[in-house]
Design goal:
By secondary structure, the chain is an alpha+beta fold. The chain contains three helices and six strands. Strands 5-1-4-6 form a four-stranded antiparallel sheet. It has a two-stranded antiparallel ribbon with strand order 2-3. It is globular, with a radius of gyration of 13 Å. The N and C termini lie far apart (33 Å). 25% of the residues are buried. The model has no long low-confidence stretch (mean pLDDT 94).
Length: 115
């Protein structure tokens, strides 16, 4: 049973977003991957990410509801969240994004893959 997922995300244009109390950040146009997990209700978590209308709770929510942002693919995995994130190439655009509870030194669970 999968417990980890990766959302492949495309930004059609550069964005400046306020991510709750985390702050305002600039995101370049291009492709990103976000690695997350759910111990319970896995498919409900994935479905929540796919919805445009939602309460903004996690860092990724603020990005996913922004204009010009599209999830292009969802990959489900049995791998450990941090191990999968660390094995994924890309640059961390915002330190700590999606990694508030990460204690494995990932630096962030959102990666920029390029334009």
């Amino acid at each position: 049973m999968p417990r980890t997922y990766q959302l492949h995300i495309r930004l059609s244009q550069p964005l400046r977003l306020q991510i709750g109390r985390f702050g305002a950040f600039d995101f370049a146009a291009g492709d990103y991957v976000y690695t997350g997990s759910a111990k319970r209700n896995f498919e409900a978590r994935v479905a929540r990410h796919l919805r445009r209308e939602k309460t903004l709770r996690w860092h990724i929510d603020y990005l996913l509801v922004a204009a010009g942002v599209t999830i292009t693919e969802v990959i489900r995995s049995d791998a450990d969240e941090c191990a999968l994130n660390q094995a994924t190439p890309g640059a961390i655009p915002v330190a700590g994004f999606g990694a508030s509870d990460c204690h494995r030194g990932c630096g962030g669970h959102l990666k920029f893959l390029g334009a």
